[in-house]
Amino acid sequence: MRRRPGGDRGQVSIEFLGMTPLIILTLVLMWQCVLVGYAYTLAGNAADEGVRAGTAAHRGGARQAACEAAGLKHLSGAWKGGASVTCSPSGYVTADVDVKVPVLFPGSIDFPVTVHGHAGAVEEVKD
């Protein structure tokens, strides 16, 4: 039995071209999962910083302003756009931060899903 010249040549290239869309899709989905995880990290950190600043301010209006400013300060420009920071008025100070999850690149299109970060601390009264 004689072998044809060239036989299986190029088969690996054809299989690779067939798998390329699946490989790219897998990488895109993994990157999107990284962005979701990063959004949770940013929301939690912003809530922690907001509540830290909120416990330092002792007046209601000043507390909300300090909390919101500190929470937004720790978000980069691309993540600030859809973010919201709210703080409780007194006693047990809490901060809630909502951050929108971007599609592939921060600052572009956002999913209609928000990630929530929450933090709390007891207000210490100084005598």
Provide structural commentary.
- By secondary structure, the protein is α+β, with helices and mostly antiparallel strands.
- The chain has one domain (11-122).
- 50% of the residues lie in helices and 22% in strands.
- The chain contains three helices and three strands, in the order H-H-H-E-E-E.
- The chain has a three-stranded antiparallel beta sheet.
- A hairpin with a 4-residue loop joins strand 1 and strand 2.
- Helix 1 (11-56) packs antiparallel against helix 2.
- It is rod-shaped, with a radius of gyration of 25 Å.
- It starts with 10 loop residues before the first helix and ends in a 5-residue tail after the last strand.
- The mean pLDDT is 79.
Describe the secondary structure blueprint for this structure:
Elements: H1 11-56, H2 60-73, H3 77-80, E1 84-87, E2 92-102, E3 110-122
Antiparallel strand pairs: 1-2, 2-3
